[in-house]
Amino acid sequence: xxxxxxxxxxxxxxxxxxxxxxxxxxxxxxxxxxxxxxxxxxxxxxxxxxxxxxxxxxxxxxxxxxxxxxxxxxxxxxxxxxxxxxxxxxxxxxxxxxxxxxxxxxxxxxxxxxxxxxxxxxxxxxxxxxxxxxxxxxxxxxxxxxxxxxxxxxxxxxxxxxxxxxxxxxxxxxxxxxxxxxxxxxxxxxxxxx
Length: 194
Description:
Layout: H1 3-10, H2 24-35, E1 47-51, H3 54-69, H4 74-77, E2 103-110, H5 115-132, E3 136-140, H6 143-146, H7 150-159, E4 165-174
Antiparallel strand pairs: 1-2, 2-4, 3-4
């Protein structure tokens, strides 16, 4: 099988991380992969903020978890995601929506029609590069809601992110704790040949 296709088929969301930080040369390769993602009209306006500040990541992670449930009872709105790598949907005692990842990337993109498309392409490149280099990753949404909070806006200002860029997603990075998740079967009937 082609190595790139194999990476795509064996990639998993990782939510249990070792505390050790990613080596700088490995992180740099992952970030470069993100920068080489396609963008609408080759605008290359997507920006990646790298945070390895444990306190900031924890606070943003708590906000992300809050945004998932917004004062609703998690037991009433949750659904099972993974027994191997439990999410905040699976285990309501997890208070950090970033799962203690030692590196958290925030992808900001140019506002407008292709904002989320550009960020998603960056995120996919980052995730596949991380997987290829033995680093676990997980995509997290709700980022726009997190950065609309007072703490989120203050953090964004400290990071020096341009006001016209939209916070789209987070990608958690770190070395996986525990065994590799098992493969999940793909649902049938998702390809239509017209």
